[in-house]
Amino acid sequence: MPKVVPEYKEVARTRIIQAATKIFSQKGYQETSMDDIAREIGVTKATLYSYFDSKKDIFNIIATSANQKLRETLHTSLSNHDYVGAVEGIVTWKMDLLKEFIHTSMDIVKLSPRDEDVTKILRDEREKDLAELQEFIQNQMDTKAIRSDLDAYIIANIVLALYWEMITQLYAGFDKEKVHETWSKSMTAIIG
């Protein structure tokens, strides 16, 4: 039997994740089977199981990866000190992501009350988001780039809550200009 090189395994895992993301986004997590994913990339279900323990394992990787990409975008954007513009860019990126993966995103939320693993992923990812945002805000306060009379932890929570409200409004079809104007005024009121 030929030996599989590590690079091939990583390429195969990536193809499986991409196929699963596509199928999850079309059918939702509950309606997607390992057979559907295997069929999408032209392999057997047994092949999938040689790379992943379960459909849930693939789903968890997708959920974690999306949040990591968001954190990277947030970190890069906020480092430019254009807080309003940075988050508008993130909001636009997240809206595109939500449109592409709406079923998966909704499934994550729906599954969390009934699935301890999904709940843990949501909780852990939110804590990572919060910690990174809090650290960034604290650094900006320390360098006097923004108001220093604030509690970085509280402000990070407020910004995350506001961020998700803006995402919800954009996804619900609210006027994009009005949402961005509200974001801009809110951020100015919060961090000055």
Overview of the molecule:
There is one protein chain. With 192 residues, the protein is an all-alpha fold. It folds into 2 domains: 1-52, Homeodomain-like (Arc Repressor Mutant, subunit A, Orthogonal Bundle), CATH 1.10.10.60; 60-191, Tetracycline Repressor, domain 2 (Orthogonal Bundle). The chain is built from 9 helices and no strands. Helix 1 (6-27) packs across helix 2, helix 4 (55-78) runs parallel beside helix 7 (116-142) and helix 5 crosses helix 8 (152-171). The longest helix has 27 residues, at 116-142.
Any chance you could write out the topology, listing elements then pairs?
Layout: H1 6-27, H2 34-41, H3 45-51, H4 55-78, H5 83-100, H6 102-111, H7 116-142, H8 152-171, H9 176-191
Helix pairs in contact: 1-2, 1-4, 1-6, 4-5, 4-7, 5-8, 5-9, 7-8, 8-9
Strand content: under 5%
CATH class of the largest domain: Mainly Alpha
Tell me the CATH superfamily of the largest domain.
Tetracycline Repressor, domain 2
Give the overall pLDDT as a whole number: 77
Main sheet properties? none
What's the total helix number? 9
Radius of gyration using CA atoms only: 19 Å
Write out key terms for the chains shown.
mainly alpha, 2 domains, Arc Repressor Mutant, subunit A, 0% strand, elongated, Tetracycline Repressor, domain 2, single chain, 192 residues
